[in-house]
Design a protein that fits this description.
The protein is an alpha+beta fold. Helices cover 48% and strands 27% of the residues. It starts with a helix and ends with a helix.
Length: 153
């Protein structure tokens, strides 16, 4: 009887631990959703600009002008920190599964601004795109070409 009770208690304890583990894993996955990871990247990047933290700025940027991060850091040393406060992410626009535009409002050096930051996922990390023009989608390019051929009546 005691042996059966011990087995039953063991099974119940195992079930409780399994349930807790599943709940924890689902919470961890929710925290790692692309949207949350993108928002975190934007906040880390803007906080680094605010603090003048070049290492963190470089860590969270994709700047194709500098294939070597050490050259990027050296160039960014002349970067002047800015006062960025009241940051609010207004929305995320998915361009593709690995590319988003993040719409932001913030107070920059005392002036309220609205802007968008392009974000890409490279090597499993979300990065703010700086120093380059994002490519237009094929649909926008083709649409623009077609409209340019229209003649006024």
């Amino acid at each position: 009887m005691k042996q059966k009770l011990g087995i039953l208690v063991g099974i119940i304890a195992f079930g409780v631990l399994l349930a807790i583990s599943l709940i924890h894993d689902s919470n961890a996955n929710a925290a790692q959703s692309p949207e949350n990871a993108i928002k975190n990247t934007v906040h880390y990047y803007l906080d680094a600009i605010n603090a003048g933290d070049i290492d963190t700025i470089v860590k969270y940027t994709d700047d194709s002008r500098f294939p070597d991060k050490s050259v990027q850091k050296e160039t960014y040393k002349d970067f002047k920190k800015q006062s960025i406060t009241n940051v609010s992410i207004q929305g995320l626009e998915a361009i593709s599964p690995t590319s988003y535009n993040v719409k932001i409002t913030a107070t920059i050096s005392g002036k309220k601004e609205q802007f968008a930051l392009p974000i890409v996922n490279k090597y499993g990390q979300w990065l703010v795109v700086v120093g380059q023009v994002q490519q237009r989608s094929e649909e926008r390019r083709v649409g623009k070409e077609c409209r340019s051929r229209w003649s006024p009546y």
